[in-house]
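Run GDSL-like Lipase/Acylhydrolase family protein through structure prediction, thanks.
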Amino acid sequence: MRWALVPLMTAWAARTGASLGHVPRPTDAPQARSAGVDSDRVLVFGSGPAVGWGVLSHDLALPGSLARALSARTGRGVDVEALFSPQTTARSAVADLDDRDLGRYDAIVVTLGGNDALTLTSVRAWRRELSAFLRLLVRTSGRSTQVFMLGVQPIRSVPGFGGPFGTIADRHAAVLNEATAVMCRALPRTTFVPLTARPGVAADRFRTAEDYRHWAGILAATMAGPLDAEHARGARPAAESPGGDHAP
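Sure, done. The structure for GDSL-like Lipase/Acylhydrolase family protein is below.
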């Protein structure tokens, strides 16, 4: 039954995605900073929430919101860089990482799965492709780098992705999230972070700064403890100023 739906879901997702051309998204440099000492360096990678749909700057999107939320919990500075593409999937993630030097980050936040949920990527393929990607992150990042894998956001909470097909994608996202949580528990330095929609928000309203603050709060609550522990141990990647090329 799922295989019969795949062409229909893929066509629906492509048609709906094409209609997002009018939705605002950041055009500034994909980075944000919260001032402070002994700053944590964070990479946000992937699609969906990493893109910043609905706002005009990365300071209002996930990078800025996360920098402020995490700094408020740790008392340290936070430097966040984003590397993203609306089309990134578990299969394309390794190529889309673009040979980024991961050894200089204290934390890597991964947001993948929305595209895979929309096109009904099989759980078997999801496990294979995402596991390979997460293992690559663990292997090529610093020994103290923490990886935080975001769950797929509720598909029906995204404007335009409701209706019967949205319900199907939402159910598949829940299955992918369950598989992801199991994978993360089996990997070192890797934590699954469920992602919820902001309560009481109409499904036909696109993202605002409040949505990114909501997600950043969820992330910061999970990230602060492991990052504090690494600071206490003195296990940090070699210091390096954020910069370099950024791929949208």
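Residues 239-248 have pLDDT under 50 and may be disordered.
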